[in-house]
Amino acid sequence: MNVISNKIKEKNDNLNIEFEKLSKEFNREELNFVFYNDKKYIHKDIEESVKRKYQDKFRQGVIKTYHTCVISDVNKTVCQAAHIIPYKDCFNTFKAFEISNGLLLRNDLHTSYDNGDFKINPDTLKIEFKSNILEDDSYAELTKYEGQCLEDKITNLATIKLLRDVY
Fold first, then answer.
1. Looking at the domain assignment, is residue 62 inside a domain?
2. Would residue 4 count as lying in a domain?
3. What global pTM score does this model have?
4. Which domain holds residue 114?
5. Residue 72 pairs with which residues in a beta bridge?
6. Is 96 helix (H, G, I), strand (E, B) or coil?
7. How do beta strands 39-42 and 79-83 pair?
8. pLDDT per residue rounded down to tens, the chain (167 residues)
9. How many domains does the chain have?
10. Where are the extended beta strands (E) located within 43-157?
11. What sign has the CA pseudo-torsion 120, 126, 130, 135?
């Protein structure tokens, strides 16, 4: 029986260590963990509330930085704040919502960017579409921006570094 008690204590100690690590990244009041088969999960509702909390500040900061779509120059009202490094790939919430990790893109260009249809070359700041997208006539409205240079729009060195990280 003593061996079992020690195993249970060890498991609880490990869970407490995990909680302490994660509580440094998140506000303790926002933490709500579900433990399943010794894996930790942040409760989805809590994760979404944290995400929403920063999304509006992120969007407003990206709008203030760019004013219009960096590619098509359309008004901000039909644009979205796109993450250069996707939210899910950022190592923490604060990194995901840094203004330098954002571009203001027209809604359809944002979707296309997220789908990996095009990238922005960090050395030339030119738009590069995948060849299969360029060959597909149904993407003509988007591919007309192929080769467009964004050097007068994207000037922040941290943003360019992030573009290099995903290129």
1. yes
2. no
3. 0.69
4. 43-166
5. none
6. helix
7. unpaired
8. 566 556 556 665 665 666 566 656 655 444 444 444 344 444 445 455 556 668 888 999 999 999 999 999 999 999 999 999 988 787 666 678 899 999 999 999 999 999 999 999 999 999 999 999 999 999 999 999 999 999 999 999 999 999 999 99
9. 1
10. 79-83, 102-106, 118-120, 127-129
11. positive
> Which helix (DSSP H) or strand (DSSP E) does residue 114 occupy?
helix 107-114
Tokens 């990996």 locate to 116
Cross-strand bridge partners of residue 118 = 129
> What's the count of helices (H) and strands (E) in the chain, helices before strands?
7, 6
135 CB-side CA count, 13 A: 3
Q: Where are the beta strands (DSSP E) in the chain?
A: 33-36, 39-42, 79-83, 102-106, 118-120, 127-129
Q: Give the SS3 label for residue 75.
A: strand
Would you mind telling me the total number of residues written for the chain in this entry? 167
101 assigned to some structural domain = yes
Alpha-carbon distance of 167 to 87, in angstroms, equals 16
Inside any domain, residue 26? no
Give the three-class secondary structure for 139: helix
Q: How many CB atoms lie within 10 A of CB 26?
A: 16
